[in-house]
Amino acid sequence: MSETSRYQIDVEVETQYLPTESAPDQGRYVFAYTITLHNTGEVPARLLSRHWLITDEDGDVQEVRGPGVVGEHPYLRPGESFRYTSGTRLGTAVGSMRGTYQLVADDGTHFDAEIKPFVLSAPRTLH
């Protein structure tokens, strides 16, 4: 049995541009992202922390680390999912996010769940 199949959290991402929160003329673009974590592994695990790298169109990177997600430390048994929505602000209309969640399994094993890069993009308007 491989370690990967025992300790596996899959991450799904949906994004949304928030025009009512944004002010493009002031260089403020606000996005919501909804994350769904699925425990596809064989052992229960608790999410301990997160690490994000948020990059805007100019190449500026914000690094975010912190405990849990939205004030929670979800516990996922095999087959269970946890969904939450959060947000970020960029100084450009396009950017990307990627990162990892740090988890601990019931047997004490610490492991990471990868958040593959995803794009944040405000609709372009023609003048």
TrEMBL record:
Signal peptide: none
Species of origin: Acidihalobacter ferrooxydans
InterPro entries: ApaG_domain (IPR007474), ApaG_sf (IPR036767), Uncharacterised_ApaG (IPR023065)
Any one of the GO BP annotations: error-free translesion synthesis
Domain ApaG stretches: 3-127
Protein name as catalogued: Protein ApaG
